[in-house]
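re: ur question from earlier - yeah i can do the single chain one, its not a big deal. heres the input i used so u can compare w yours
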Amino acid sequence: MSGIAGIYYLDGRPVERTDVERMVDSIAHRGPDGSGVWTNGPIGFGHRMLWTTPESLHEKLPLTNKTGDLTITADARIDNRDELFSTLNLNGRPRETIADSKLILAAYEKWGEKCPEKLLGDFSFTIWDKRNQKIYCARDPIGIKPFYYYFKEGKFRWSSEPKAIFEDGSIPKEPNLPLICLY
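and the output i got, formated as tokens:
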């Protein structure tokens, strides 16, 4: 049970690192094995790490790929690793050193927004696609790994727990009754 959090301002204003740090600190109980924060202009990612698999011991999030155009933060356990290694042409690399977040990034590079259809396991992740200037968020179909969000007036905040979102005091803590009725 790791934790993710983040902010994206669609109007282009920069994310303050301290805002993401506050979000991450509020979910510290989700990950005693480390934390990380990454900001780049209007986007900021945060992560709390809990090592749950041998591969996760090599993981440091948020993670930016080698070309610098994709960044991910994730709470994930991918169960079809062998299949993905073969399909994504990652054979020959030491599997025990490739964390699930790297597999998700490779899947996104190959299949784009269809990548969750190829992933088996429990996951919640956010990817910043710098080339296309877009954010992509996904979670497993059953929702084992939680993903809460707030989007209004060009402000998008997300986290593994609502309390990280409410670190922004301007976000109302009132229930969305029409959405509850639909549910």
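DSSP finds five helices and nine strands in the chain. not sure if urs matches, ping me
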